[in-house]
Specification:
The protein has 2 domains: 208 residues, P-loop containing nucleotide triphosphate hydrolases (Rossmann fold); 153 residues, 3-Layer(aba) Sandwich (Rossmann fold). Helix 2 packs parallel to helix 3. Strand 10, helix 12 and strand 11 form a beta-alpha-beta unit. The two termini are 38 Å apart. The C terminus is likely disordered. The strands form 2 sheets. The chain has a 7-stranded parallel sheet with strand order 3-4-2-5-6-1-7, sandwiched between helices. The radius of gyration is 27 Å and the shape is globular. The chain is of the alpha/beta class. Helices cover 34% and strands 15% of the residues.
């Protein structure tokens, strides 16, 4: 099937051709006709499958073919969990709408609020945003969603995992009318919170599941290496960077401090590297990603900040210097390579601290994993044995040392006296206040 068989506007077909795409991927083949027919949609596909165009093309085609419900309100709203993914979607949106009259804006947390007020005041047709900052503008009455025609949630599972449920509910209620269409994309449909949320947002949705997020990626070679300690990981990393032929590399670490440390050490060895982490200002993060995407650095050292959404076609190798705490993130990290038909290598280091994460990943992949070795750098660490459960105190397993039942001690007649709200010695009794901590508070400022 070709793109011209979707009955898309000719300007969109020209844009797709200029972007270098000749025929639709499987998710595009199924999602585009369903979305163009006006159905609500809940869909999943593995990373790198082309889902961004799967919702952008029917969205812009709708703007071209249909009359607007409102002259001022935005017509399409696209929500993403992270700033980096929002920028990626916005870049493709600009390419798709290049020859049209439609205005689009990008609204992100961490950027100037007043500047965003000004662009929202110009009545854009399409908004790409992170939910936290968009909800802030909505709460202040700076724009309205009464005329919204299409709400798109990209990586809905990640948004919910990051604690954006309340903001998503607020946005949904602001655009709750019968003419609104909703498209929800998730890495997996086996996510209880996503399915519960879909009941509130979607109206008789079509379901599309392309493969499994855990299915083996034929274009990516995955290898696992046991490590004794941090220095051992460092030696293995240096070995591969010196012996492997690579274009660009992404190295994932567990902490922000490790991103800076590794990038500095690699630069000292002559490998042009840059560190990316969440404690950087948004302008700094933008500059780093732009320079890396242009090939100005060979290596990007990052936390899970770059595990989703970034379409970097020149990344030939991904290294998991530390395994992620959440097993699903492994799938997204690995998916940064082997994109658009290219071959890629994913190499993971597993030390004692990574062992439980390794077991979780193994369970998620549902496949046997063989450990590879590098001559001269073989680990002594062979894995951690599961803790033995305490045996039941009965039958032959009963403790042999306990042969005779001990006579119970006579109960003491002295009664315990409990003093309530009295001071002991020189230290007064102080009662702790109940915590009012809310998990979602950690993320509102992030995006």
């Amino acid at each position: 099937m070709q793109f011209d068989q979707f009955n898309l506007d000719r300007r969109l077909l020209t844009a797709v051709e200029h972007m270098g795409f000749s025929e639709p991927t499987e998710i595009q083949h199924q999602a585009i006709p369903a979305a163009m027919a006006g159905h609500d949609l809940i869909a999943s596909s593995k990373t790198g499958s082309g889902k961004t165009l799967a919702f952008l093309l029917p969205a812009i085609n709708r703007l071209v073919r249909n009359r607007a419900l409102s002259k001022k309100d935005p017509r399409v709203l696209i929500l993403t969990p992270t700033r980096e993914l929002a920028k990626q979607v916005f870049a493709q949106l600009k390419a798709v709408t290049a020859s049209t009259q439609f205005k689009s804006v990008l609204i992100l947390g961490g950027e100037n609020f007043n500047d965003q007020v000004k662009v929202l005041d110009k009545d854009p047709h399409v908004i790409v945003a992170t939910p936290g900052r968009l909800a802030d503008h909505l709460a202040k009455g700076l724009f309205y969603l009464n005329g919204l025609e299409l709400l798109i949630l990209d990586e809905a599972d990640r948004m919910l995992d990051l604690g954006f449920a309340e903001q998503l509910k607020q946005i949904n209620q602001a655009a709750d009318h019968r003419k609104r269409q909703t498209l929800m994309f998730s890495a997996t449909l086996d996510h209880d919170q996503v399915n519960e949320f879909a009941k509130d947002l979607l109206n008789k949705p079509k379901k599309i599941a392309i493969g499994s997020m855990t299915s083996e990626h034929k274009d990516i070679t995955q290898k696992f290496y046991l490590c004794d300690h941090l220095d051992h990981k460092q030696q293995l990393l240096e070995h591969f960077l010196q012996t492997e032929t690579f274009q660009q590399v992404i190295i994932f670490t567990a902490t922000r401090s490790d991103t800076e440390r590794l990038a500095t050490e690699l630069n000292n060895t002559g490998i042009n590297s840059v560190a990316l982490s969440g404690d950087l200002k948004q302008s700094e993060r933008n500059q780093i990603m732009e320079s890396f995407s242009k090939g100005q650095q060979q290596v990007l050292v990052t936390t899970d900040l770059a595990s989703r959404g970034l379409d970097l076609v020149n990344v030939s190798h991904v290294f998991n210097f530390d395994l992620p705490k959440h097993s699903e993130e492994y799938i997204h990290r690995v998916g940064r390579t082997g994109r658009a038909g290219a071959k890629g290598d994913a190499i993971s280091f597993i030390g004692p601290k990574d062992w439980q994460s390794y077991l979780n990943i193994k369970g998620l992949l549902q496949q046997e994993i063989e450990f590879s070795q590098v001559e001269g750098l073989t680990a002594k660490f062979k894995g951690l044995k599961p803790k033995k459960k305490a045996q039941a105190d009965s039958g032959p397993a009963k403790n042999k040392a306990v042969k005779k039942a001990k006579k119970p001690k006579a109960a003491k007649t002295k009664k315990k006296v409990i003093f309530s709200n009295e001071d002991f010695g020189d230290m007064p009794m102080i009662r702790k206040k109940k915590s009012t901590y809310n998990e979602s508070d950690d993320f509102e400022e992030q995006d």
